Amino acid sequence: MKRKILAVVLAAAMATTCLTACGSGKSEGKKGSSDETYTVTMAYVGDKKEDTERIEKKINEIMKKDINMEIDLEPISWGAYAETMKLILSGGEKMDIVPILVDQANSMVNAKQVIDLSEYLDKYGKNINALLGDTAKAANIGGYVYGVTTGREWFCQSSAIMRKDILEECQIDPSTIKTYQDLTDVFAKVKEKYPDMTMMASNNSTTPDTKYEMVDTLTDGFGVLMNQGQETTVENYYATDEYREFVETMYDWQQKGYLSKDAATTTEGVENQVKAGAAFSYFAPNKPGYDTRAELLCGTEMAIAPLSEPWAGTAQISFLTYGISSSCTDKDKAMQCLDYMYGNKDVLNLLNWGEEGVDYEVKDEENNIIGYPEGKDDTNTYHLAEGWQLFNQFEMYIWEGDSPDIWKETKVMNESALKSKAFGFTYDSTGVTNELAALSNVKAQYAAALGSGSVNPDEVLPKFLEELEKAGIDKVIQTKQEQLDKWLGRK
Question: What ranges do the domains of the chain cover?
Fold first, then answer.
């Protein structure tokens, strides 16, 4: 019944979504005898695959034997994430393990919708602590550990991801692309040959401005550190020359037909748009092996043009974490399950790659390289390919085409990336809760439209800035600056 009720609410709120609503009767685990199997409901961000139930069954065969638990997988599409999590958590819907995007963390903590994991990590976090060490509790607000990050890259390198075949056809060398402005000439050449194609894919949660990451957002973006966090003065990013130049370029691209008219509203994933032949490129953060991932998701070879050197801000480690919902009926078991997920190679590979012999086969056992079985591809296999967000990517197989040393390379880049001056800092937003709520509403009204070139910045940006002022952005900036100064003083 809960599933049906939530499905109705979601359908009304998001007419375009096709996700499976969370909270089924089988997740209503009760505390009881030690031999009673507890079902953990776990949400993750990603589109539901046709064979998700098959994979879930295989995972549960392992989990029940190992820890006497089962898991109920509940995928939530990227485009529907914010609204769906809001409905689930505010409605007290049965949910155990939840994915937390950093821009939602403050509101979840302030509303006590997720629990403080500090003691649970100390008690049950053997695998997590072994993997993450000092960063196990990095996702905290005022000491309130709301989530656990995943074993993945903790740096950012904003890049343009483009169809390689089209670049070659148009005789464009991607190594000559150094800034986003350089893409204007690239798009002009490609558009001439492909007039019906969108030059840069976008959707309501990943408009170009959100994936062009050059400032340390200090959690929520309302007050940032410029120059990849190398400055220590908190500024209103939306009032900077850099932001104005960016949205002016997006508007120019929109007028030239380089961006789609529904760039700020569609929920279709950017890779799916490329795969369907509707788009040529998109912005994304580069990392070792991203070319292989992009090819798998886009169905064609992709070229990457980095637009910055690798760097790490406050949001990178905490961009996506996993927490435990306050509505969880057995928080100890949920934490035990979460830690188990970080340490079990078989479960991790099932969740990300599917079944051996059905969805993949081992190509190089010595180097843990896998690939599609003969006659198979992503159209007839389970193939999530979202290892970066699934607990511990470093324990997963490596897809053929990637370097056998990809995980070693990633760990090295984690250590060598340029660190923001505020790396490791998280501010306490308790005193500006009302302002953040108001600012979020303002941002929702203006940012996606500006960031996708859907409106004229000459007309709309002044209104955006005026509304941000009214909503209290100066108070948030002052709060961040005061806390940052104290934090820097203690280093």
Answer: 2-150+317-353
**Cα–Cα distance for residue pair 407/414, rounded to 1 Å:** 11
**In whole angstroms, what is the distance from residue 152 CA to residue 317 CA?**
9
Q: Is the dihedral of CA 177, 183, 188, 189 positive or negative?
A: positive
CA geometry: angle 225, 231, 233, nearest 5 deg: 65
Tell me how far apart the alpha carbons of residues 135 and 26 are, in angstroms, rounded to a whole number: 34
Residue of 81, 72, 126, 123 lying closest to 99 (CA atoms): 81
What tens digit of pLDDT does each residue of 204-236 get? 878 899 899 999 999 889 999 999 999 999 999
DSSP string spanning 124-168? H-HHHHHHHGGGGG-SEETTEE--EE-BS---B-EEEEEEHHHHH
Q: What is the tens place of the pLDDT at every residue in 103-120?
A: 788 888 888 999 999 999
Using the 8-state DSSP alphabet, how is residue 278 labeled? S
Reported as a pLDDT band with limits 50, 70 and 90, residue 335 is very high
| Rounded Cα–Cα distance for residues 257 and 454 (Å) | 11
Question: 372 near 88, Cβ under 8 Å?
Answer: no
pLDDT of residue 425: 81
**End-to-end alpha-carbon separation of the chain, Å?**
52
Angle at 134 between CA 228 and CA 76, to 5 degrees: 70
CB of 357 within 8 A of CB of 373?
A: yes
Burial class of residue 212, CB neighbours in 10 A (0-12, 13-18, 19+): buried
Q: What is the pTM of this model?
A: 0.73
Q: Can you read off the two tokens belonging to residue 134?
A: 């000092």
What is the topology classification, in CATH, of domain 2-150+317-353? D-Maltodextrin-Binding Protein; domain 2 (3.40.190)
